[in-house]
Amino acid sequence: MIPAVDSSSLWADPSSGAEGVEGGGMKEEFLRLLLAQLQNQDPLNPLDAKDFTAQLATFSLVEQALKTNQVLESLALYQASSHNAQVLSLLGREVTIRGDGIRVEEGRATPVRFRLMGDAQQVRMILRNSTGDVVRRVDLGPRPQGEHGWTWDALDQEGLLVPDGLYTVEVAAKDITGAPVECELQREGRVEAVLFREGTAHLVVEGMEVELGDILEVKGP
Q1: CA distance 42 to 47
Q2: For residue 95, how many other CB atoms are within 10 A of its CB?
């Protein structure tokens, strides 16, 4: 006599070495085993009705689970497609993002915005090149709490024009007692490209890659 169908075998992990069955194949395999069980059962000891009903109920649950998984996979694909389409709509748009990057092109630097969390008696902008070397320090004097804008003239400490490329800026702010004032750096630029890496979208703004979570504002077309 063929033993009762073990539903757990139908869920076998293919990576474990067992031959897992998916989708319609699982349904066909279950029915094949159940039919073989009925055809080969011992006439003197037939399959108990309760066991037969339990196996059918198990099959029904398995089939429902498969359908649910298929629906969830379809929803996930739709959501990813919709999200990617929304991200692509940012191409060419002007955005404000968190970040300390500055791009110098043809002797002109991208503007910088920063927000002081308190009144500052002294604000100093420190510019570094791609290797981390300081190329310029600019003192802005006192600044009140709030948002401020500033554009580097792309000159180094000697007054010479710096080469085109990517730079970073640091804001060193102190209050009247000399204590540091917290500051958040922002910058503006145009979205030049969208990169998709391992299912995650990244933007290229003024030649610098940024995370979607760093976007603070998207300006209208």
Answers
A1: 8
A2: 20
Alpha carbons 99 and 207: distance in angstroms, whole number: 13
Give the whole-angstrom CA distance, residue 80 versus residue 19. 31
CATH number, domain with residue 182: 2.60.40.4070
Which one has a higher pLDDT value, 207 or 105? 105
Please state which of the ranges 59-73, 87-101, 132-146, 147-161 shows the lowest mean pLDDT.
Answer: 59-73
Q: Which two tokens stand for residue 128?
A: 């570094």
Last residue of a domain, one of 88, 121, 151: 88
Selection from 168, 157, 156 nearest residue 110 by Cα: 168
Residue 132 and residue 186: Cα distance in Å, rounded?
19
110 and 166 housed in the same domain:
yes
What global pTM score does this model have?
0.55
Give the residue numbers spanning the domain of 147.
98-188
47 to each of 3, 6, 16, 33, 182, how far by Cα in Å? Answer: 10, 14, 31, 14, 76
- The answer to the question of residue 216 being in a domain is no
Structure tokens at 50: 């309760």
Least confident segment among 21-30, 96-105, 152-161, 167-176: 21-30
Q: Can you tell me whether residue 57 is helix, strand or coil?
A: helix
Query: Rounded mean pLDDT of 81-95?
Result: 72
